Amino acid sequence: MNPILTDKPLTIKQAADFTGYSQAYLYKLINQKKVPCFKPEGGKILFSLDDLKNFVYRNRQSADYELAEQADAILTGGRV
């Protein structure tokens, strides 16, 4: 079974494969405290798949058609 599909913690290599970032860039993000991780006993760095998903899918940019639909809803008195 693919380790990414299990509840096991992910290694730095698996996290890099999942996010598409290099391992070096992930280490940089960890040092800047921008990506959540676990360091049991201060050693090996591990990641939660849910944490990585939340990290990767944050700051979503709406498409033009979504913004137009929201604007139309506001202008016609509908709810967004």
In short:
The protein has one domain (3-75): Multidrug-efflux Transporter Regulator, Chain: A, Domain 2, CATH 1.10.1660. The protein is built from four helices and no strands. It has helices spanning 12-19, 23-31, 49-56, 64-75.
Please describe what this structure looks like.
The N and C termini lie far apart (41 Å). The chain contains four helices and no strands. The longest helix is centred in the last third of the chain and has 12 residues, at 64-75. It has one domain: Multidrug-efflux Transporter Regulator, Chain: A, Domain 2. By secondary structure, it is mainly alpha-helical.
What string, H for helix and E for strand, traces the elements in order?
A: HHHH
Structural domains: how many:
1
Q: Overall mean pLDDT score?
A: 89
Outline the biggest β-sheet: none
Number of strands: 0
CATH topology (fold) name: Multidrug-efflux Transporter Regulator, Chain: A, Domain 2
| Estimated share of beta-strand residues | under 5%
The CATH architecture designation is Orthogonal Bundle
What CATH first level would be assigned? Mainly Alpha
Terminal CA distance: 41 Å
Q: What structural category do the secondary elements indicate?
A: mainly alpha
Number of helices: 4
Give the low-pLDDT segments: none
- Give the assembly state of these chains: single chain
Features of the shown structure:
single chain; 80 residues; mainly alpha; Multidrug-efflux Transporter Regulator, Chain: A, Domain 2; 4 helices; elongated
